[in-house]
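Dear colleague,

Thank you for sharing your sequence with our group. We've completed the structure prediction you requested, and as agreed, I am returning the results in plain text so they can be pasted directly into your records. Please verify that the sequence below matches your submission; if there's any discrepancy, let me know and we will rerun it promptly.
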Amino acid sequence: MGFQFSEDIWERISLLMSVGKEETEKLDYSDEQVRHLLKVWFLTRRATKNGDRREFQVRRAWEKVDARTRHRSIRRFAPWFKYAAVLVALVGFSILWLNRADRKIDSPKTARVDFIPSGVRKAELILSNGEKIVLDTNVCREEITVAGMDFLNDDRKGKLCYRGVAQEQDTCPVAFHTLYVPKGGEYSLQLPDGSQVWLNSETTLRFPVRFADNRREIFLCGEAYFKIAKNDSLPFRVNVSEGSITVLGTSFNVSAYEEDGIWQTTLVEGKVSLEDGERQILLEPDGQYSLDRNTGKRTLCQVDTEWYTSWRNGKFYFSAYAFEEIVKKLERWYDFTMTYEDEEIKGMHFSGTIDKHRPLNDVLSFLEKTADIHFEICDRHIIARKIRKE
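Please find the predicted structure tokens below.
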């Protein structure tokens, strides 16, 4: 419900506020409208003052109100009190709101702490004809047909399937599709033979439109977990820049980022054969083969495979890892960059478990509590500095 003011209301209110001091003695203070108007007027006056000037006595406030009323009688305008009270209240609250806004502007600004969420299911499918298709939660279930292959993208599970083999002659070169998972993403792929591949962040997988008659072959750059459908007559080969892994039916993890100093294969179950140059290595379950690109050192050992495959199940496990190595994994998943004010931070070692679906801020907060490190976040860049104890 609103109030309608006549055309001369502004003049009447002006006269109302110019009542002479001697006339105020004639005011009927038992009148509720009179007392309400003066109270609102008092609050309005106080709202226009700075915070440190607002503490004054009520009596002085009333005297100031009286000092503003010097010329005319209030009685002839008594009927207009209810309108004046409403108007003054509206003006008063408006001024009060503006003053609060000013105080927010003038108040000291606190340091901005940016929020960095965890990664999500997203990828980009680059078809053999060069067409690019974005796969993420913003895309509905979509079926794509190209070169005789039917692709089905399930964005809810972050999974891409393709089924049916293209009918091509053996003389025709086999075309390859590429599935690329950027920083801050993960995705999975089901190949037409039923084999499944889980791709970690910043990973590229090239796979054929159809498998050759004598082998199943794909190319990997990055990290992926494989669960290969068994086929004794059709070996499955994963090619990386330094060699290849050949399997018949098994589950294993391959980490082969080009920028990392080490690439490694970790076998969960089954058997795999690795070709590293002229070397051929046979891995048993829980076995791991590693190659240090910088020194050329090769290592074959038994490990707890959970430490190397936990990323697929939403965890990062670290056992005496150098902080710099931990950050490499976190940078890929959370899509950020880190610089160090103190180089010694890189060599600090940590052990523990990180829930990869929690925001990065929680992870950094935990690290700050376990070591003398402070992290400063600005957008997606983080500065790490050592806390010096006096």
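Summary note from our side: Confidence is low (pLDDT under 50) at residues 1-21, 43-59, 68-112.

Kind regards,
the structure core
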